[in-house]
Amino acid sequence: MSTVGKVIRCKAAVLWEPHKPFVIEDIEVAPPKAHEVRIKMVATGVCRSDDHVVSGTLITPLPAVLGHEGAGIVESIGEGVTCVKPGDKVIPLFSPQCGKCRICKHPESNFCCQNDSLEKPQGTLRDGTSRFSCKGKPIHNFISTSTFSQYTVVDDIAVAKIDGASPLDKVCLIGCGFSTGYGSAVKVAKVTPGSTCAVFGLGGVGLSVIIGCKVAGASRIIAVDINKDKFAKAKELGATECINPKDYSKPIHEVLQEMTDGGVDFSFEVIGHLDTMTSALLSCHAACGVSIIVGVPPNAKSLSVNPMLLLLGRTWKGAIFGGLKSKDSVPKLVTDFMAKKFPLDPLITHVLPFEKINEAFDLLRAGKSIRTVLTF
Ligand code: PAD
Ligand code: ZN
Ligand code: ZN
Question: For the structural domain made of 178-322, what CATH number should be given?
Answer without folding.
Answer: 3.40.50.720
